[in-house]
Amino acid sequence: INAEYGGDGATMDLLNSPLPIREFEYEFEKLGPTADGKINGTVARGPMTESKLPNATLRRIWTLADFDQDGKLSLHEFAICKQLMRMKLEGHDLPVELPNAWLSPVAE
Question: What 3-state class would DSSP assign to 86?
Answer without folding.
Answer: helix
